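Re: the pair you flagged

First of the two:
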Amino acid sequence: MAQRLFNVEGVRLACEDAGSGPPIVLLHGFPLDHTMWDAQVKELQSHFRVIAPDLRGFGASQLAEDDAENGVGMERYAADVIGLLDWLQVSEPVVLAGLSMGGYIAWQVALRWPDRIRGLIPCDTRATADADEPRAARFKMAEAAMQAGNSSPALVMIPKLLGAETREQRPEVEAKLRAMIERQSAEAVAAAQRGMARREDVRGKLDAITADSLCIVGVEDVISPPAEMHEFAVLLAKSGHDDVALVEIDHSGHMTPMENPAAFTAAVAAFAKKCYQL
């Protein structure tokens, strides 16, 4: 794997860029970084060019001066993704996957730059905006992280991020997830939480997305349950595309790429090969 650094409007961002072939872009969830995709990068790079950025503020990527205080909107993260593709000189439409917060960003890319998307893979994500209580909880976590000076307030999420089976039988997954959260900055946590709290409800816009889509969800996901993802898969299908599928991943909660990487990667690879007619 090769880490690459680039600049978008003066902000240094980082990404992994591995393999060659048709491009697949992977957008990580909150409060993580590109290493949540390690298993996918390793397997997919034999057939595809796999691009996995650290979103603004996470991993090796920086924030702009006022991002932590003002929050980073999903449209800003999406513009960073387009900036990355331009910098990498990837002009052809890509297969774009986003998990959780990465999914919120993927919606914005698909809606604002539809000509850049060949296939869309929303993973364990939502199309609704936050209700009042979860929105308030996001602002509270942002403040707590800034007061603590680190990402420790976000560790409370772990029980909901992983399925019960993973926590009981695969402790190494929880250990990797915990370490990933712990190495993120307070500012990244605050910027993302404040941005997600203000995100729009995109359900009424999904029928405008014409790219073929594959929705992926863990059977045990309590954050974005299978029933909810089925609902927006139906909305995506209303665009006139019959090719909207939903795959439920066994032995997984919210973090399907880490909890059942073989099944998740196989679903992504099959979809991408179909999109690229390989």
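Second of the two:
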Amino acid sequence: MIRLFWELIRVSFQRHLTYRAATLAGLLTNLFFGFLRAAVLVALYGAQPEVAGISIQAAITYTGLAQAIIAYISIFGWYELMQSVYTGEVAADMLKPMGYFRFWLARDIGRAIVNLAMRGVSLMLIYALIFDITVPAGPGQWLALAAALGLGLLVSFAWRFLVNLAAFWTPNAVGVGRFAFGLSWLLSGFVMPLRFFPDWFATLCHLTPFPAMVNTSVEIYLGLLTGPALWQALLAQLGWFILLTLLGHLVLRAGVRRLVIQGG
């Protein structure tokens, strides 16, 4: 079963690796908006060297990081599972010798690796050539960042999986997805660092799984999370993944039961 899981990751990786033109177009788009966001933050900072504990250098780095992980965690939307329900492919997918959740997770990991390597890393390298960006201080911080990125992807996938299951109850769940994904943009720290918001709003955000997708990785990269706070953030990511996964399986079970009853 593990071998099959890795084989699905490999196939998905190769599949998305062929979309080089789309990847390049996406990279250029991310760069444009990254530079635009950096310019806005520089203007907002003005003569202030630091805001909410974040230096202007770190703020510019944040804009690159936020843009670099757009495709990696599919924060703007992901509807493949939803479309498979509408086309009827869901029936064949569920007959595969692997759990439905793990089947889609393997496919998503392959997709994510391609986007992180070709769009995420490339964007940060270009940023480093243009700006004096912040870089993690040592191997410990890099390892923590790698763990946060991996867990962030898992939380993101579990959330997207859950949102896509709405297709079992409505003939067009894209509207549900747009609302759900739009909510994640704001509450995850993607639009603006959560430290820039009032304390009550930042606390509200941390009661949701969304900061585990973006904010945790960004703050670890910038060195804003260290010691016990870092471990607490990583455990929170793991906790949200487990919770969303369990919820996703419960909703999937109800959705499949509904599909069978209706003769799907």
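Residues 227-261 form the longest helix (35 residues).

-B.
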